[in-house]
Amino acid sequence: MKPDEFERKMRLGERFHHLRVEEDCFLVLRVDGRSFSRFTERKVEKPFDARFHDWMRATTEALFVGFDGIYAFTESDEISVLLPQQTQLFDREVEKLVSLSASKAAATFSLACGEAVDFDARIWVGESVDNVLDYFRWRQDDATRCALNGWSYWTLRKQGATVAAATARLEGLTRAEKEALLAAYGISFAETPLWQQTGSGLYWNSYVKEGFDPVKQVATSALRRRLAWEEALPSGDAYRDFLRAFL
After folding, report:
1. Which range of residues forms the domain containing residue 86?
2. Predicted structure pTM score
3. Is the residue at 241 inside a domain?
4. Residue 124: C-alpha distances to residues 22, 25, 56, 165, 234 (Å)
5. Residues with Cβ within 8 Å of residue 14, at least 6 apart in sequence
6. Is residue 81 part of a domain?
7. Is 178 domain-assigned?
8. Span 147-167, pLDDT tens digits
9. By the 8 A CB rule, do 24 and 126 touch?
C-alpha cells in the first residue's frame, strides 16, 4: 500500500476529528477539577480556602485570555468560559476546544498550587441569548447550593460528626433548615463572602488611558481594556441583567 493511501486509511479512525460546534451558536467551555475531593481534603481548609480560590482565579484568567472569552464564571472547582458567538477559534473543532481547555486549566492550576492535578472539560452550546442567561443562572444556583451544603457538612464534621453521620443529618433538609442548623452554631450563611455563595465573574473592562504626545506636545487618550473580577455577583434576575452587558 502506498504511503498516501495508508495515511488516508489510518485517518479514517479519527472519527470525531471533524466534529465542530454549529455556526451562530454560543459556546461555553466548562472545566472541572478531577478527583478534587481527595485533593482538597488534604491540601486546603474546609469548607472554603482563600488560597484555593486564588488558584481557581489564576486558572480562570488563563482560560479566559487564552480562549478569547467575553465572560467567565467560577465556583468551587468549576470554570465556565463564554466565547464570542461568532468565534472561529480552532475552527470550532470540539476535540481541540475540549482537550486544550482541559490541559490549559490543569497546567495553570498545577503551577499555582505546586502539585499536579487534572481537569476534565466539556462544551455547552446555546442557540440564543436567553439560553446563555439560563446557563449561567443554572451554574450560579449550583454554586449557592454547593456552598450551603459545604458549610453545613463541614460545620457538623468539625463538631465531631463522622462522614456518615453528617451526611445522614443533612439528608432531606431544606435550604431554610440548613441555614437554621448553621445559625445554631453561630454561623450566618447570608454573611459568608459572596464569592462563596454566588461565585465569581471575570470580564473585560474598558477604560481611557491618558497620555502625552511629546512630538505634537498635546495630551492624548486611548481606549484600553483590562481584566475585571466581580466577587459580589448579583443573583436571580439581577444576575441575568448583569450578564446582558456581555452578550
Report:
1. 21-198
2. 0.91
3. no
4. 12, 10, 20, 36, 23
5. none
6. yes
7. yes
8. 999 999 999 999 999 999 999
9. no
